[in-house]
Design brief:
The protein is an alpha+beta fold and about 180 residues long. The protein has one domain. The chain contains three helices and six strands; from the N terminus they run E-E-E-E-H-H-H-E-E. A six-stranded antiparallel sheet has the order 3-4-2-1-6-5. The radius of gyration is 23 Å and the shape is elongated. About 15% of the residues are buried. The mean pLDDT is about 90.
Length: about 180
């Protein structure tokens, strides 16, 4: 028997991003429109399967020391589908937002002092900083700095798939009297 089933799966995205520093922001929720530090993905570098299980090496996965994950390249990729998923990633918190509820989550995540401190430390280590003048037509209408970096994110997706399942055997009940 074949049925429709909603399947959850996760993929690892490795991408180039801009780490944005807005000196005029003080991470004040409800006052500052954008956080002092946030990441804006720009270009997808890798899209991979991943596992947390060390025995995955038996299935062709290799250990990524930096991420502490076991990763494996995907043999056949639908480029348009992956590009659409990367666009979704760019418009999800903590990288961006597309709806009012996304913005609320974006604010809760990116204005958090611990998250901001992590990004500030990362920003301090980067060397390729660039000043960008305020532009009323851009997404950031304030003087700010950007620095190129590489980032990664595990994203969960849901897909409606056809799945073959076993059929139960018919039971015949006999009455032995």
């Amino acid at each position: 028997m074949i049925i429709h089933k909603i399947c959850k799966y996760s993929k690892l995205f490795v991408f180039e991003a801009d780490l944005i520093f807005i000196p005029s922001s003080y991470n004040r929720k409800g006052i500052d429109p954008l956080p002092k530090f946030h990441i804006r993905p720009s270009r997808l570098i890798e899209y991979q399967n991943f596992s947390y299980n060390p025995s995955s090496v038996n299935n062709g996965y290799t250990k990524n020391e930096e991420l502490n994950l076991y990763v494996k390249n995907i043999e056949y990729v639908d480029v348009d589908l992956v590009n659409n998923k990367f666009t979704v990633l760019k418009n999800r918190p903590p990288y961006g937002f597309a709806t009012a509820s996304d913005y609320e989550l974006f604010v809760e995540t990116t204005f958090d002092s611990k998250y901001s401190a992590i990004l500030e430390t990362k920003y301090a280590t980067l060397k390729n900083k660039k000043f960008v003048k305020a532009d009323p037509d851009s997404l950031i209408n304030a003087d700010h700095f950007t620095a190129k970096m590489e980032a990664s994110s595990i994203q969960e997706f849901y897909d409606n798939k056809l799945v073959k399942i076993g059929e139960p055997k018919s039971l015949t009940i006999t009455n032995n009297v």
